[in-house]
Amino acid sequence: MVWPDIVLTLANLIFTYALIPQVYEGFKTKRGAIVLQTCILSSLGLFTSCIAFFSLGLNFSGIICNINAILWTTLTFQRLIFKE
């Protein structure tokens, strides 16, 4: 593992950890509290970053980034389904 992979993995872990309460709260309260445009653009950007990480051989960063992108996609679906 190279140092950029470690740094990017840690940064994405922090972002992922920050999203978990938001996803949980969305299911708990049945509200999509985040703007749809934010959710969609974040999801697409993160999935694109995942492809870049994997193509550079930064596998751990790619995996964690993918989890982060899935959480943003979950927030997108919460917004679409629960509609505030």
Q: What's the CATH C level?
A: Mainly Alpha
What is the molecular shape? elongated
Secondary structure tally, helices: 3
What's the Cα radius of gyration? 14 Å
The count of strands amounts to: 0
User: What name does CATH use for the topology?
Assistant: Monooxygenase
Helix and strand run: HHH
Tally the structural domains: 1
Kindly name the structural category: mainly alpha
Beta-strand proportion:
under 5%
- What is the terminal separation in angstroms? 43 Å
CATH architecture: Up-down Bundle
Helix share of residues?
over 70%
Unreliably modeled segments: none
Largest sheet: none
Mean pLDDT: 91
List its salient traits.
85% helix, 84 residues, mainly alpha, 3 helices, elongated, Monooxygenase
List the helices and strands and how they pair.
Layout: H1 3-29, H2 36-55, H3 59-82
Helix pairs in contact: 1-3, 2-3
What's the quick description here?
The chain has 84 residues and is mostly helical.
Written description of the protein model:
The chain has 84 residues and is mainly alpha-helical. The protein has a single domain (3-82), classed as Monooxygenase (Up-down Bundle). Helix content is 85%, strand content 0%.
